[in-house]
Amino acid sequence: MNTGEINSIKENHFQRYLNYAVPILENYNGTEPFHLYLKKYFSVNKKHGSKDRKNISSLCYHYFRVSNGVSADIGIKEKIIIADFLLNKKSSGLLKEFQPGWEQWIPLPIAKKIEKISPYFSLEKIFPKKKISVTKKIIAFKKINWGIERYGTR
Question: What is the pTM of this model?
């Protein structure tokens, strides 16, 4: 197996994770806590191993953290990709597959990342009623995502 085939397999994993996460989010109706909904989903769908469950869950939670700040006319798949870009400090296979041009911006601070994708994402949508500076909104946004930075998930 050559390097190209190995990279193709990895990319397919990320595409599959995204393809599993989208219907999970589409079918979630909010009547029960999301972690219980996911638990039921994974107990019915035994085909997912522990890494698959971790990656699919991570994409779903990324979506919830960022989706309110993304334009309403953008689909769930694209919102997950935007969330993955904003919340990761390292390049992911998902970005390599769907937004390779954004990879160069991964090391940037969160404020610069938000500037780069400003047509699609706005902190004002996440903190609409707060009359605070952009700097404070960025700090608040980071606090929302403190677990990712603190524990280094994804």
Answer: 0.78
